[in-house]
What does this fold into?
Amino acid sequence: MRLTIQIALAILVCCTLSCDSMREVSIYEPSKSISAFEQFPHKTLFTGSEENGIWGVKNNSCKEVSFEKTNNFNGKDHLHIKWDDSKCSYIALGLKWSNFKGKNLKPIIKSAAIELRIRVDSGVLSNVPMFFVLVDYGGNQCRANINYLNLEGGRIDTKWRRIRIPFQAFNYEKNGVNMGNIKELRIEFQRKGDVHIDNIVIVPHEHNYKKTKEIFTKVFDSHPIQLGSGKEYWWGINTKYSSSLQFGRSFKNESVVIELDKSKKAPWNTFGFSPYQWMRVDISSIHTTSALTFKLKSTELPKLQTILFAYTGKKRKLEKILNESHYVDKGNGLYQAYLPLKSLIGYSEFEWDALKEIRFKILEGNKVEIGDFQLIEFRGNPKKPTEWKGI
Amino acid sequence: MERNINLFICLLFGVLQTLTVYSQVSKVEVTTNALGNFELQRNGMPYYIKGAGAKDHFDLLVKSGANSIRIWSTNNNALLDSAHHHGLTVTLGLHVRPERSGMDYNDEYAVKGQIEYLKNEVLKYKDHPALLIWGIGNEVDLRYSNFKVWETIEILAKFIKEVDPNHPTMTVTAGIDPSKAFYIKKYCPSIDILGLNVYGSIENAGANLRKFNWDKPYIVSEWGVNGPFEANTTSWKAKIEPPNGIKADQRQRRYLELIAKDKERCLGSYCFLWGQKQESTATWHGMFLSNGNPTEAVDVMQYCWTGKWPQSRAPSIINISLDNIGWRKDHVLAPSAQANLSIELQKYNNKEVIVEYVLFPEAFSNKIGGDIQKSPDPIEFKIVNQSDTELTFISPKKKGAYRLFAYLKNDKGQSSVANIPLLVE
It folds into this structure.
């Protein structure tokens, strides 16, 4: 009984004291915020050989790595590497970075950078051929190099200079690197060099630069498409050197008057234009149902070669010599030409999302005007270009 | 007191020397002459560029009649000093990273960093007395898709116009086509000169520029023999390299009939390469061998630049064949089989010549645009018999692609070379 009373008293005293130390709190009071950077536990990559693991320090004919104890930026020693890649295809060091623990960089990716100190024994450099590579646990890698904007003083010399590599500078999106599970940081070296490195750490860093997604492609997905609008996008017409080809006026849009000087050894008989302002023209969604068409004014049909060029791809050139089957006689010396794209040999290997140029070569004939180039819908037999009822 | 006087004299001398160097900065400009042709003028005098892409052998370059070198980046300022010491001017490259090297021209950070770095390089070198022309970018158009690179070229060219009125600006393209001419003309108005790296395409380069409406002058910034990227290949994709004698003739014709004849727009040229490099083979573009010996291409350039052949000419290999099959064809041997390589020579004024045969593994490479390639090491092979023009040998035991080289030299080390790719299977 006496023991029970004692226990009850003890509990009462405890409760009383506890209540005394309590304070009133609002249920909406925010907890003290800790930034993602502060929470990130793996901020040190290298401060000295004893503290942090590095692989790839074994010397060979291409690199000489040592840990020097004098003139450190901090710690007991620093890294000194000399390299020459003339006999090796790959020279690198790897920082085990918290002993290869999977590191989640996602929370700090926009607010932090890798920082290191660098110096040389003599002279001044404005760049060093070394690259920083983040490797994830899937083996995917993304790279960044030293940027002048984050090189202290814009130079590497005998002083310890600060370099920062913002995480945003790594091409992780393009290379599909999982920034939530990074294994290690590698430093790759190219060509030849000799540098001292110390104090590789993660620091807060604001990176105020944009990455745009500009592509120089004009997409067309419906007909008709007017081609080659604007004389500045044409070539082959330069009256200073030849009057064989000149801009004409007979048609609504750009046209060329051809009057070849056949006395010349190398006749000026070729012209071309960009379908759209020398951009990559993407007609990949409509190319199978498209035909090139243009107007022609002449007393007799010339022999014309049409050539299409792409900016990229294994097959960059398609060509066709037009014959009578490509023309419809409209009377009074006027013709309309039709060239279904499907009739071009090799059209399926051509990159129709990167059309670059349409070119014409006059093989035979003279005194012709051609123009008003368009891409129109064509769903007929490619071998019978003028017989589709839709044109 | 005496020490102070000495110190003062040293300082005065230093200041005077700096002023002297500064006053040596050349005024270079693009003008038109009385005939209406474009002309480069240096310190008020017409200056036709007889140049080479070169990093060494400057003594021989000067002796051969050249007056200028082209270098591709600012990473070796000793070259500028050395060129100046030899009386050579320099077209100095600002290395604008091409897209194919991983540069993203949509990445503002990378773009601004590069621009600021290169602006600093301009300030560093703009008063160098050897500087002739700024070469802003080299082949940035090769396999590119982001045309924003021309913005960078223009920003740099415009900056140069602001800080260095003494030196014209040039950008260098890999060949020329109407789209490149359009983009440079429209987006890079501060570019004074177009530099053309043209190998096979040199044949029509001048005419094409006119057709593509390029209305400023040009320099043939790299030219030589047809490049590996234009060469025929064997069935196992090894590039077929013509013998040096054939390549030398091609150089001579191209200089005399194409470059030197375009007086209206061409301000001169830089032959490629006054030195040696690995590009598919160790001998394709280089006018020297890896041991430093000059080849007959050096003699050709002296003839082109001065109109005179050197007194001592390099011997020349004009043909090479394997088992009586010419160098343009495929050559397939069985392992450990005996085969016969023969060469045809032009000895010129050499009484004695020495021939050496070396076997290499084939150096397949996907690199383009002069990107750095590694040289393979030679392989030992069994020679049965050897004369000045014939080699009987045993093919390697191991199957694979190889290349057999014949090196020819005179007693002065002037050399020639030819090779045949061969497949052992």
Remarks:
- Chain B touches chain A through 32 residues (CB under 8 Å).
- Chain B has two domains: 19-306, 316-424.
- The two ends of chain B are 84 Å apart (CA to CA).
